[in-house]
Amino acid sequence: MKNFGLILSILITILATPVLSDEKSPRLVMELTSEGLVVDNINTAVLQKMFADYGYNDYVYMKDWKYPPVFLQKFPSDFNQLKDKNLRNRLFIQILAPLAMLVNERIALERYQLLLLEERYQKNKTFTDEDKKQLEIWAKKYDVFTRMKGEEYYKILLSELLDKIDGVPPSILIAAAAAESNWGTAREVELGNSLYKWKVWYTDEGIKPLEEDDDSYRIKVYPSLLAAMEEYALKFNSDVNFKNFRVLRNHRRNHSKTLRGTTMVYNMVVGSPLENYAGLLSYIITFYSLGNLDEAELGRVDMLFDKKEN
Question: pTM of the predicted model, to two decimals?
Answer without folding.
Answer: 0.89
